[in-house]
Design a protein that fits this description.
Layout: E1 4-11, E2 25-32, E3 37-41, H1 48-56, E4 63-68, E5 71-72, E6 83-86, H2 98-107, H3 113-127, H4 142-154, E7 161-165, H5 173-190, E8 194-198, H6 201-207, E9 210-215, E10 218-223, H7 225-230, H8 235-240, E11 247-250, E12 252-254, E13 257-260, E14 263-265, E15 279-283, E16 288-291, E17 295-304, E18 309-315, E19 318-324, E20 334-339, E21 345-348, E22 351-352
Parallel strand pairs: 3-8, 3-9, 6-7, 7-8
Antiparallel strand pairs: 1-2, 1-4, 4-5, 9-10, 11-15, 12-13, 13-14, 15-21, 16-20, 17-18, 17-20, 18-19, 21-22
Family: Belongs to the ABC transporter superfamily.
Keywords: ATP-binding, Cell membrane, Hydrolase, Membrane, Nucleotide-binding, Transport
InterPro entries: AAA+_ATPase, ABC_transporter-like_ATP-bd, ABC_transpr_FbpC, ABC_transpr_MalK/UgpC-like, Mo/tungstate-bd_C_term_dom, NA-bd_OB-fold, P-loop_NTPase, Transp-assoc_OB_typ2
């Protein structure tokens, strides 16, 4: 296993990039600790696969360096980086048995058969596929094929990092939660450095200790799942994480006070700087309540999500979502919205611009 450092990393697919828009990856500086579980999360086209290919050695970055435990591997070929990779589609040999598939990475590196058997049996037990070891891989279900593909990545004890590139894309939805749980369990047992690339927030947040959220080639926030939910550093993170996503409401700022529809709105703390640019209030639906007083709005939609209701209301032409328990108001009802102050933040040009109030 290894600590992975990305230093001043940039990449463009153009031979002579001349502007920031020419870069698929803008400047990235990251440190991933030895043995950690990490996720790269973002929509298609945000740069996460480019970053994964750079770490694996399939791409050489236009600028910057990649270090494994302080050793510069920027120019090393993939087979010199001592990594394992699990892809969207299972990479296994259909004509081989499950045992031989799991054994292949070790045999390919000249390990003796006692070592091979010990490691294969240990991984098979972790994956709960011991009873399949004599079966041909061709006859396995898609989820079991992906289990074997994961096992091939985990069977070696000498890898610097195991990377998962959208590994559950082809798995039926009702089986995904089983494999997500199994992967988390495997990480806790083998303690390998793992990087999981996905566009699915559920996969990222249930697997990773630290999530790197990317948009348009930039890292917009790095944090624990709780940190990303409770205090998004950027409105994109607020939108992307959570269901429903964070309310982002255009507002005005006057004399250090945020205003919605001419009414002041209490924020989590003082505003940083002069708040020049596009100003917006961000608050998650979980912290919006319906009350006797507050911001007047009209209910436009009510959704029953089972565990709670989501009420959507029109506030000065902007939709605000509120998560509530109990009987919801009817569509068209006049209501008042209240925002929990310690969860109400100001964003300027997308970035958070308030400090939490101390005490």
């Amino acid at each position: 296993m290894a600590k992975i450092t990305l230093s001043n990393l940039r990449h463009s697919y153009y031979p002579n990039p001349s502007s920031p828009s020419d870069y698929a990856l803008k400047e990235i500086d990251l440190d991933w600790s030895d043995g950690g579980a990490y996720a790269l999360l973002g929509p298609s086209g945000c740069g996460k696969s480019t970053l994964l290919n750079i770490i694996s050695g399939l791409l050489v970055p236009s600028e910057g360096r990649i270090l494994f435990d302080g050793q510069d591997v920027t120019e090393l070929a993939p087979d010199k980086r001592n990594i394992a990779q699990v892809f969207q589609f299972p990479v296994i040999y259909d004509t081989m048995s499950v045992y031989d598939n799991l054994a292949f990475p070790l045999r390919n590196r000249g390990r003796d058969e006692d070592t091979v058997r010990s490691r294969v049996m240990a991984i098979a037990e972790m994956l709960e596929v011991t009873d399949m070891l004599d079966q041909k891989a061709a006859g396995l279900s898609p989820d079991n094929k992906q289990k074997i593909s994961m096992g091939r990545g985990l069977v070696r004890e000498d890898v610097n990092v195991v990377m998962f590139d959208e590994p559950l894309t082809v798995i039926d939805p009702h089986l995904k939660w089983k494999l997500r749980s199994k992967l988390k369990e495997l990480h806790q047992r083998v303690k390998a450095t793992m990087i999981y690339v996905t566009h699915d927030q559920t996969e990222a947040l249930t697997f990773a200790d630290q999530v790197v959220v990317m948009q348009l080639g930039e890292v917009v926030q790095i944090g624990t799942p709780v940190e990303l939910f409770e205090r998004p550093a950027h409105t994109f993170v607020g939108h992307f994480i959570g269901s429903p996503g964070m309310n982002v409401l255009p507002c005005e700022v006057s004399a250090g006070q945020a205003m919605l529809g001419g009414q002041p709105v209490a924020l989590e703390g003082p505003i940083q700087g002069e708040a020049k640019g596009q100003t917006e209030i961000g608050i998650r639906p979980e912290f919006v309540s319906l009350a006797e007083t507050g911001l007047p709005a009209t209910v436009t939609k009510v959704s029953d999500l089972g565990r709670h209701m989501v009420v959507e209301a029109d506030l000065n032409g902007t939709t605000v979502s509120a998560v509530i328990n109990g009987t919801p108001p009817e569509k068209g009802a006049q209501v008042h919205l209240q925002f929990r102050p310690d969860q109400t933040r100001l964003y300027v040009d997308g970035w958070i611009a308030t400090n939490p109030q101390e005490g």
